[in-house]
Amino acid sequence: QVQFVESGGGLAQSGGSLRLSCVASGFSLRYYAIGWFRQAPGKEREGVSCISSDAGSTYYTESAKGRFTISKDNANNTVYLQMNDLKPEDTAVYYCAADHVECTYFSGIYHNRDADDYDYWGQGTQVTVSS
Q1: What three-state secondary structure class fits 31?
Q2: What CA–CA distance (Å, rounded) separates 38 from 44?
Q3: For a Cys-Cys bond, which of 13, 24, 53, 64 suits 60, CB 3.0-4.6 Å?
Q4: CA gap 8, 27 in Å, rounded
């Protein structure tokens, strides 16, 4: 059975940190690029970061660059998103998604594909940042 489960969300203060995890079962992350997305209330889901299947390349959107770090442990089938210097505008439900296509980007900035193009999605984890 394929599962993709996020954890690590919660409440943080502005300037604080959280580390999100996404554990896969039923498929191997070494064959997939992984994207992190978020969706705030009333807004569309947006990409945040992406890591290549071999974990050798990482990409971020402008909002995440310099504050978030994506990493991937293929041996343990887990992807992480370390989020530092959190801001209230980071409040959202965060999702991970597996893609058989490598990360798409433009001028070094992550440019996510349509949600339907991703193979597997996690259920999401809530991140709330208070000011």
Answers
A1: helix
A2: 9
A3: 64
A4: 21
